[in-house]
Design goal:
Enzyme class: oxidoreductase
Catalytic activity: 2 a phenolic donor + H2O2 = 2 a phenolic radical donor + 2 H2O
Keywords: Calcium, Disulfide bond, Heme, Hydrogen peroxide, Iron, Metal-binding, Oxidoreductase, Peroxidase, Secreted, Signal
Main location: secreted
Number of helices: 16
Protein name: Peroxidase
């Protein structure tokens, strides 16, 4: 039982540290672009409507980009930067799947539209944050207000990406510590993990799970056994074979943002080890209760997800606020 007091102490220490670090940052506001680009939210929404209508997977691509951006240097658009002679980007970091992140062309398309309407005004960091909100709404998820006023970073940090972003096979305590470091609570972590109700996972990221304890957590009932067989047909046991094959993280409603993800965890069928840990870990007393809550009360999940997404989007990069820029092209620092 000694783990839990130490975990609470760790949570308090990290949250206080994050508050003290970001206390001097300029506040984000809802009306930041009121006079300079009043149609920014409409422009992003209309572009996202077309893109998600053409392929619902685009919603998950954009949402994942936003998560991976905010966990490294704060929400500053660093994930969008390409490698150059002078800069090493984050796209090839191992936690970003060595270039497996998708959605960059979506951001390019929206940025081009914004530059034609309001040149040099809207940051890529704000664009991505707004687009992530719209992505969720367009596949059935909740609405939340998006405060804006972020600046784009002039740097990227692949080492920090490898250090800060949770991995697919990580244990519960490791995942919790990474969320706490960002100033996000255990409740935020469980709610934000619900984003895995949409999107796909690569075989490389769920192989250990399906050839490991999947049978133990699911109880090997006939339906779970059939699902496991399907997963193994997609993902061979041998490493290097089919590593890039993909399957939906929510096999029931893969293109709908709902609480089906939590029902999968209750059945022991979480695709990623890091997801199933929320319910099955011996350290998961608090997380297990939250999984139960969101599985039985979708309104509670939607409400908490909205609140947690605002907190995620408000993770700041002090350096970018004061020394950042508004990139003309999201892939490159301005010359």
């Amino acid at each position: 039982m000694a783990v839990y007091p130490s975990l609470i102490t760790l949570q308090c220490f990290i949250v206080l540290a994050c508050i003290s670090i970001s206390a001097s940052d300029p506040a984000l506001t809802l009306d930041y672009y009121k006079s300079t680009c009043p149609n920014v939210f409409d422009i992003v929404r209309k572009e996202m409507e077309c893109l998600v209508l053409s392929d619902p997977r685009n919603a998950a691509f954009v949402l994942r980009l936003h998560f991976h951006d905010c966990f490294v240097q704060g929400c500053d658009g660093s994930i969008l930067l390409d490698d150059t002679i002078d800069l090493q980007g984050e796209k090839k970091a191992s936690t970003n799947g060595l270039n497996s992140l998708k959605g960059f062309r979506i951001i390019d398309k929206i940025k081009n539209k914004l530059e034609s309407e309001c040149p040099g005004i809207v940051s890529c960091a704000d664009l991505l944050t707004i687009a992530a909100r719209d992505a969720v709404i367009l596949v059935g998820g909740p609405y939340w207000d998006v405060p804006v006023g972020r600046k784009d970073s002039k740097t990227a940090n692949p080492d920090l990406a490898n250090q800060n972003i949770p991995t697919a096979n990580e244990g519960l305590l490791g995942i919790i510590s990474k969320f706490l470091y960002q100033g996000l609570s255990v409740t935020d972590m469980v709610a934000l993990s619900g984003a895995h109700t949409i999107g796909m996972a690569r075989c490389e990221n769920f192989r250990a799970r399906i050839y490991g304890d999947f049978g133990a957590t699911s109880g090997m009932n006939p339906l779970s056994d059939s699902y496991l067989g399907q997963l193994k047909s997609v993902c061979p046991a041998r490493s290097g074979s089919g590593d890039n094959n993909v399957t939906a993280m929510d096999n029931v409603t893969p293109d709908l943002f709902d609480n089906s993800f939590y029902h999968m965890l209750l059945r022991g069928e979480g695709l990623l080890n890091s997801d199933q840990e929320l319910y099955s870990s011996v350290f998961g007393i608090q997380t297990r209760k939250l999984v139960d809550k969101y599985a039985t009360d979708p309104a509670a999940f939607f409400s908490q997800f909205s609140d947690s997404m605002v907190k995620l989007g408000n993770i700041t990069n002090s350096d970018s606020f004061f020394n950042g820029e508004v990139r003309k092209n999201c892939r490159f620092v301005n010359t």
